[in-house]
């Protein structure tokens, strides 16, 4: 019953996610103008990168190789003359418009959520691969660096003012034991060391605690 319900919800939301991404991007663009600042399952348990270390793993090396080597080996040649997208030139937000922000089922279950990245500068930049995604708990003492999926990726140019996105696979639970309650999501763009921090939108909903799992059901998919 749960899998059928989840599938119906996923199909319904898939038609709305594109509009939701545009809604989130438009909101971020307005903020910038005002002067404010496909999953295939995780490949392994190595983190996709954290804000304090690799800044986002790419290619087949879950620990990251850094710079142009990772871009060339992981998903396409670097775009000559176009610098990579820097953290300070990006903004992030969960896609929430048009019912894109998934509502966990009453009995838990898995779903996906989209995070929008917008290039708030006026120049194009190059991006591609897996962002580092770290969840932090309410008290800030529990950090979960998400594993990545086995999806392939390509680097591409992101024009000034334009947006792209990536998805998180999330496994929710209503159990009183074995859960993890995030408060914040820290996103480190590929090959960067600084993070973007956004609020976890489900303050009353917890994830299955699979920080030590070989193939966790909560993981990150590549950008684009």
What does this structure look like?
- There is one protein chain.
- This protein has helices spanning 2-14, 17-33, 67-75; strands spanning 42-47, 90-94, 109-119, 125-127, 132-137, 143-145, 147-149, 156-158, 163-173, 179-180, 182-188, 196-199, 206-208, 219-220.
- The model is unreliable at 1-23, 25-39 and 44-78 (pLDDT under 50).
- It starts with a helix and ends with a strand.
- It is built from 3 helices and 14 strands.
- Strands 1, 2, 3, 7, 9, 10, 13 and 14 form an 8-stranded mixed beta sheet that branches. The chain has a 4-stranded antiparallel beta sheet with strand order 6-5-11-12, with no helix packed on it. Strands 4-8 form a two-stranded antiparallel ribbon.
- The longest helix is centred in the N-terminal third of the chain and has 17 residues, at 17-33.
- It is 17% helix and 31% strand.
- β11 and β12 (196-199) form a beta hairpin.
- The protein is of the alpha+beta class and 224 residues long.
- The protein is elongated, with a radius of gyration of 17 Å.
Number of strands: 14
**N/C terminus separation:** 32 Å
Percent range for helical residues? 10-25%
Radius of gyration from the alpha-carbon trace, in angstroms: 17 Å
DSSP strand content: 25-35%
| Unreliable stretches covering 5 or more consecutive residues | 1-23, 25-39, 44-78
Structure class: alpha+beta
Q: Count up the helices.
A: 3
Average residue pLDDT? 73
Q: Quick one: overall form?
A: elongated
Mind summarizing the main beta sheet? 8 strands, mixed
Order of helices and strands: HHEHEEEEEEEEEEEEE
């Amino acid at each position: 019953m749960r899998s059928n319900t989840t599938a119906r919800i996923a199909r319904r939301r898939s038609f709305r996610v594109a509009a939701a991404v545009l809604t989130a991007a438009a909101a971020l663009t307005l903020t910038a103008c005002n002067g404010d600042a496909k999953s295939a399952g995780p490949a392994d348990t190595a983190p996709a990168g954290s804000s304090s270390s690799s800044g986002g793993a790419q290619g087949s090396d879950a620990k990251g190789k850094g710079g142009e080597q990772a871009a060339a080996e992981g998903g396409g040649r670097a775009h000559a003359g176009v610098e990579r997208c820097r953290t300070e030139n990006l903004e992030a937000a969960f896609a929430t418009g048009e019912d894109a922000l998934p509502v966990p089922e009453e009995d838990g279950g898995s779903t996906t959520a989209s995070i929008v990245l917008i290039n708030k500068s006026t120049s194009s930049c190059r991006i591609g691969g897996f962002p580092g995604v770290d969840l932090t708990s309410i008290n800030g003492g529990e950090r979960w660096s998400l594993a990545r999926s086995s999806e392939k990726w390509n680097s591409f140019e992101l024009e000034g003012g334009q947006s792209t996105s990536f998805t998180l696979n999330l496994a929710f639970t209503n159990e009183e034991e074995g859960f993890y309650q995030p408060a914040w999501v820290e996103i480190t763009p590929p090959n960067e060391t600084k993070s973007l921090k956004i609020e976890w939108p489900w303050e009353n909903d917890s994830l299955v605690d699979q920080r030590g799992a070989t193939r966790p059901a909560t993981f990150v998919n590549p950008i684009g």
